Amino acid sequence: MSEEKIITPEQEAQTDTAVKVHVAEGKKASSGAAQPASDQGMTRRRFLFSTGVVGAGALLIGQGVLAFALPNNVVAYPTSKGALLVDTKKCANCTSCMIACSSVHYGKASYELSRIQIMFNPFAPYPQGARQAQCHQCKDPKCVAACPTGANHVDTANGNVRTVDARKCIGCQKCIEACPFETARVQWDPTTKTSQKCDLCVTSKYWSEKGGPDGKHACEEVCPMRAIKYTTELPKVDGLEGYEVNLRSVDVDPKWAAYGLPTGDGGEWSADQLKAMQAAAGGATVSEG
Amino acid sequence: MSHPGRTLFLFLILVIAGIVGAVIAANTGHLLFNILWPLLILAPFFGLLVAGRTKRHETFIDGDRVLRHDGAARLEHWTHGVGTFALIVTGGLLGVWFMKSALAGGQPTWLAMNLHYVAAWFFLFGTFYYLADTIITSGKLKEHLPTKNVVKYSIQHYGHMMGFKKYSMPPEDKFYESEKLAFIIAVLSAALLVITGILKVLAHVIHAMPAGLMHVITITHDLSAILITLFLLAHLFFGVIIPSAWPGLHSMLSGYMSVDEAREGYPGWFAKITADDAEAEDSASEQADR
């Protein structure tokens, strides 16, 4: 490989274009004659140029080939083995589930780090006063599809639970944006600048119990109202409002009815409860709610 | 338009196009790292390609001024420098290491990421252009490497600049020993940023990248960013703010430094240029005699 030398503008003006680039003789490029580049064989600059052209060309051609060669697959995600149900009519806004969630995942009692969110409106009448936002483990997880790096993924080793591996998350928040529910079921963890979501306690490293689809779930365990329940039969999600589930019926929670609390689907007294109340009142009329 | 003028025009057009592209992509919910990642991998090759077509100009005295930085040196410096600065700003806004993100979710975050992409493109191009061109041009790399005087001279130099050390400048070369020391830090941090950055880009393509590896890469990327930020702050202070550095700043913009400034500020370098000029003149007269 020949030695490459730098040239002065005066020398450059005296040589033709090819020679300007590839002056190759002596201690310094002196004025006057220099040999044409074609006589030099592969110079270092020519080698660099070739490397750049070949590299760039290979990359572009490779992309073109891949674009045509790869099939346009429709991605189908395996269904999650289960999900958490929350009965909004049963929740007492105690936020125990939020504290339990952040405690088992992060070892901190923090509302901010909880993967289940309880929103409380003290001015709204029952049952609109409380709203719960927990992940539905959707059959068609938009959050997983939106993730550019595969951080938000289907964990096939743990019952296909939809989860975020924070180590791969780049913090773009595309998954939060993609979640169809209001409020998004994927949350932003400001301390790590990554997304997080309910993983059914698969990564509950601060909990001695085994989590995951086949294990226990901190929010469910701690809920004093028994308003949260794990299910392997996902209810039909109705639009962006999610689903309505009744965990107050006698067959699900006999104690709830025994205390005389409303067991109707809409949070009202059931027909049986009203009859029982009428009987207890000696036949007087008892209104609903 | 002169050649440097055309280069500057092209540079500005690319910067504006990059910013406009970043804004449009953010507004339409796209991440450039995701949809245009091949263009980013292309940047180093583009740097090599341009280095292969570059014509370097030797330092020469033109009347009362000296050519200190030719067009290639300035292009390398400013693409790398502007890219680094924009990377630090956008990366800082997105949050570094233990620092939280200063941005709201959605479009502000996507815009910062897209601008980070544009900055990364310039950074990669400038870095590889500089590396390839420096290695290939005889004597250029040596200009930047520290000598055995590096520690002693650097302490004296910075002490002198800060005004708490009395010291008369030794006949330093084109770059001070202190600058050569900073060069090593810049190269180290830039190398770490390039390696970790490219791996982070590849994570958009290869979703099966090991999570543990990505975790280490993210931390290394953040720490390298902090290192290069410290370097840039020192570089700005000693290269822009302190008045004694202004001739050097001027030459990095115009290419030229006055003969007086070269003689006083860089006596070792000036002695070399004048010796080379005398040698060239002798050689020319010998040829003419024949």
Question: How is this structure best described in words?
Answer:
The complex is a heterodimer of chains A (289) and B (290). The termini of chain A are far apart. The relative contact order of chain A is 0.12. Chain A is elongated, with a radius of gyration of 33 Å. With 289 residues, chain A is α+β, with helices and mostly antiparallel strands. Chain A has helices spanning 9-14, 17-21, 44-69, 96-106, 142-146, 174-178, 218-222, 254-258, 271-280; strands spanning 83-86, 117-120, 130-133, 152-155, 161-164, 186-189, 194-197, 228-231. Chain A is built from 9 helices and 8 strands. Helices cover 27% and strands 11% of the residues of chain A. In chain A, strand 4 and strand 5 (161-164) form a beta hairpin. Chain B is mainly alpha-helical. Chain B has a single domain (3-284), classed as Fumarate Reductase Cytochrome B subunit. Chain B has a 3-stranded antiparallel sheet. In chain B, helix 4 (71-94) packs across helix 9 (211-241). The relative contact order of chain B is 0.12. The interface between A and B is large, with 49 and 54 residues.
Nutshell version of this structure?
The complex is a heterodimer of chains A (289) and B (290). By secondary structure, chain A is of the alpha+beta class.
Topology:
The complex is a heterodimer of chains A (289) and B (290).
Chain A: H1 9-14, H2 17-21, H3 44-69, E1 83-86, H4 96-106, E2 117-120, E3 130-133, H5 142-146, E4 152-155, E5 161-164, H6 174-178, E6 186-189, E7 194-197, H7 218-222, E8 228-231, H8 254-258, H9 271-280
Antiparallel strand pairs in A: 1-8, 2-3, 4-5, 6-7
Chain B: H1 3-27, H2 32-35, H3 37-53, E1 61-62, E2 65-67, H4 71-94, H5 107-136, H6 140-144, H7 150-162, H8 177-202, H9 211-241, H10 246-254, E3 256-258, H11 259-265, H12 267-289
Antiparallel strand pairs in B: 1-2, 2-3
Helix pairs in contact in B: 1-5, 3-5, 4-5, 4-9, 7-8, 8-9, 11-12
